[in-house]
Specification:
Layout: H1 2-19, H2 25-44, H3 48-72
Helix pairs in contact: 2-3
Length: about 100
């Protein structure tokens, strides 16, 4: 019984990350651009460890955006580069 519970827990832990977070490829690309901007700022301030962490987060978010874009049938978004900034949030719609 204990082995069954352990196996079930382990399976659930491995399956949850595969489901991914909700959202669209555009949202993930925005997150990638945001991390890229944070990485650029940290690098300019000499915080190279923080810059590296944010760069990896930008790459992970871009990878997620690419896989979601493929699933959605949309064009693949470009890889964030140094100096790229996220788009401003959309203006609120008036009723």
């Amino acid at each position: 019984m204990k082995h069954l519970l352990t196996l079930t827990t382990l399976s659930a832990c491995l399956a949850l990350p595969a489901l991914g977070c909700g959202g669209t490829s555009a949202q993930d690309q925005q997150r990638a651009l945001s991390y890229q901007q944070k990485s650029d700022e940290a690098g300019k301030n000499g915080q190279y460890g923080v810059a590296g962490q944010d760069q990896r987060k930008a790459q992970d978010a871009h990878y997620s955006a690419v896989t979601k874009a493929i699933d959605e049938g949309k064009p693949i978004p470009p890889q964030p580069q140094m100096g790229d900034t996220p788009a401003p949030p959309p203006a609120p719609q008036k009723p």
